[in-house]
Amino acid sequence: MYFVELKNIFVNLISTDNYPHIGLNDFVQFCRNVEILDHTIPTSTVDRMFIATKVGSPKVGTSNTLFRHEFLEIMIRISNAKYRESGRASTCHEALRMMLESALEKFQVKPWQEFRDEELWTFEVDAVFKANIEPLKKIHENVFPKFAQDSIKTCVELISRVSDLDLSEKETRFCLGMSKMTVRDEVANHAEYEKLRMPEFLEFLGRVASVKFFEEQEWPLCEKIERVLDSVFAVYGYKRKPALKISIEESSSEDSI
Question: What are the two backbone dihedrals, phi and then psi, of residue 65, each rounded to the nearest 5 degrees?
Fold first, then answer.
């Protein structure tokens, strides 16, 4: 219970300038923003719990960042100290519930799965990507070649500097982080965070479109994506093809990308 809420917070926190890591300073700032810090949980206590959580941690990534399972652990440690040890809760479960209910009122969780379910996974968006899948595959291979060490940086710069989209690096990194599917085993597969697979790359472009044209509320997402493709394709000398107009009945009989 509460795993979904904790995972949503985790995904939002790693989708920052330090993607894909939550460092000590990032975590302390989060605790400050949601008012976890008080006389019972000062910064020094969070520091100690961070260190305790990292004891025995595998040497992957950096020693000063939290994996997903460590984020869950430190949240339970803090809620236990803040509510159970002070007598305000009788169980760890109740302590975690109380802390999350308070924190979520103050932390704006951006939609992760909801964006996919409600905006991205539509026949109209699918048609745009299907019509342009070949150049999209070539661009993806160019940005994320095998064994490349700086593909994430290249991807961010494509949107924030190289193309004319002029999205900030912070916004671009957030779109990238939110587009990652769950990495099943972060310890064994930490390198997964350093690339976007093809479906993730398409989602990334969809999120970029949503953020870039956020004020154009009357535009459907498929139109926003077309404008993003125009900008990205121009960098590589491609021309966007119009999406085929097909009925829902025809679409339902085909496999989506």
Answer: -135, 155
Tokens (6 digits) for 157: 């710069």
For the chain, give every domain's residue range: 3-104, 113-252
Alpha-carbon span 71 to 10, nearest angstrom: 7
Span 171-218, pLDDT tens digits: 999 999 999 999 888 888 888 888 999 999 999 999 999 999 999 999
Distances (CA, A) of 79 to 11, 111, 212: 20, 24, 37
| Structural tokens at position 72 | 């869950």
Give the separation between CA 253 and CA 187, rounded to whole angstroms: 39
What phi and psi values does residue 163 have, to the nearest 5 degrees? -80, 175
Q: Which pTM value belongs to this model?
A: 0.86
Q: What is the largest distance, in Å, between two alpha-carbon atoms of the chain? A: 65
Provide CB contacts within 8 A for 53, sequence distance 6+: 66, 70, 73, 74, 77
3-state secondary structure of 140: helix
- 140 and 73 Cβ atoms separated by less than 8 Å: no
CATH architecture type of domain 3-104: Orthogonal Bundle (1.10)
Compute the distance between CA of residue 159 and CA of residue 172 in angstroms, rounded to an integer: 7
Would you call 99 exposed, middle or buried from its count of C-beta atoms within 10 A (0-12, 13-18, 19+)? buried
Tokens of 105: 């009122």
Q: Tokens 């008080």 map to which residue?
A: 38
- Output DSSP code: residue 238: -
Query: DSSP label at 247?
Result: -
